Every structure is written in structure tokens, then in C-alpha cells.
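Long-time lurker. I teach an intro course on protein structure, and each term I like to show students one example going from raw sequence to a predicted 3D structure in C-alpha cell notation. This year I'd like something fresh instead of my usual example. Would anyone be willing to generate the C-alpha cells for the chain below so I can use it in lecture? Attribution to the forum is fine with me.
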Amino acid sequence: MTNIGYSSEYILVAERIKKRFGGLIAVDGATVKVRRKTITLLIGPNGSGKTTLLNVIAGFYKPDGGKVIFDGKDVTGWPPHKLYHLGMARTFQVPQPFYKLTVLENVLLAARGHPGESFAAPLQRSKWLPREEELVDKAFSILKLVGLIHLWDQPAGQLSGGQMKLLEIARVLMSGARMILMDEPIAGVNPTLAHEILQFLVKLRDQGITFFIIEHRLDIAMQYVDYVYAMARGRVIAEGKPEEVVSNPVVIDSYLGG
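-- Reply from a regular --
Happy to contribute to a lecture. Here you go:
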């Protein structure tokens, strides 16, 4: 059911989110709005509440207050698998592939409505085989897009750190996600690959996918994002265009002051 009062301009609205862990207030009334077909960046010093906010939006934590609206639907407290089927997917700072499966198999497992999920499918092979072939073709197309096509039959555990990040992006693309939440997509990779990953996100944005990302490597990330939110001590302290936020005295003070 569509919620009246939330502009269709935004695919995501996380409004006045609160999250506590015992006596610790990790997120204290933070509000972020993500426009469709943009790359929105969330920054802040360590301990500012960024990842907790991302985890609330992605359904890994239930908020103690506030609302999460995705594509006009109130999804507050929904678990990750329900959000996944709705078109929201999250990647992690440390990729989590199935290390013993091949790159192709990892991508195929991410497909929604895979015929292998049905108990009766093996008994009706003639019906699900065309769908299986369609998914394989789609998986190969995505692997070509992310530059991993030459490694399709390699175990995921043999990939480099940067290649695993590309594999994780391939998996969420296979799911048909319309919005991707990412926690430090270029952490731990060399500058050349970091630029390639972000350039790839820009291409996907131009194809209609929305990104909400956390990243600490601001010298690189700021070149590719459309809008920035800054957090400190659980609250949003600034928002705007990249150049506006990084030059904001409050943001600068929050980093220098820890």
C-alpha cells in the first residue's frame, strides 16, 4: 500500500530513525532521503552510527523509533529477505560469497524465483529448463558487465579482494535489485580498481539503479556521488552536494574532533 505524503522523487525515506543498544544510542533521530537513480553517500567518523543506520534500513536491525519507506511502501522492521524480494539489496564491507562454488554458481544463486527453489521442479524438468537457460544467459551477461566473465568457472574463494567486491555487485544485479545499499565498496582495494568500481556504479546509476553507500575514502568517492549526508554521534549533521558537505565547518570539526 502506497503511503500518502512521501514524494515519488525519493525511492527511500528513512525518517527520524532511532536505534539503541542497551544504554547506548547508536542512531538518534536520523533522517535521510535518497532520490531515484542517484548515488547517495553517507559519511562520518567511526562510531557515528552510519552502519547501524544502514542495517536498520536493510532490515538487519529493527528501529526503536522512526519509519523506513521504500518505493512508497512502509517497510519499517521488515526482514532482509522481504526487502530483497521487493528490490532492495545490501552488500557488505567484507564480501560473503560461497567460496567453494564457482563465480557463475554464486551469481545464479542470487536470482529471485529460481526454479531450483521449488520442491516439485525436478519432477517437471521440461517446464523449468527454459527458465534455467534464461538465468544462465543473464548471469553470463552480468559477469561480462562487471568484468568477471573470464573467471566464470573459478571457485569464488580464489578471487582477489577487489574481484570479490565485483562478484557481490554481480549477485545483487542478478537479484533484480532497484536499490543497492553498500558498506565501503572500495575498502581495501587499490586506487585504480577503486575508481573502476565507482565508475561502474555510475554506469549502473545511469541505467536506473539507485545506490546508498557508506565510504571512508572520500578523496576518491566524492568524485562520483550525487548527494552526501554526514553523521556524527548518531545524528545527521549536514547534507547537500559533495563540495558543500566536505567544506562544512561542522563536518570538518566532527572528523577532527573524532
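Some talking points for your students: The mean pLDDT is 90. The beta strands are 10-21, 24-35, 39-43, 65-70, 73-74, 88-91, 179-183, 210-214, 227-232, 235-240.
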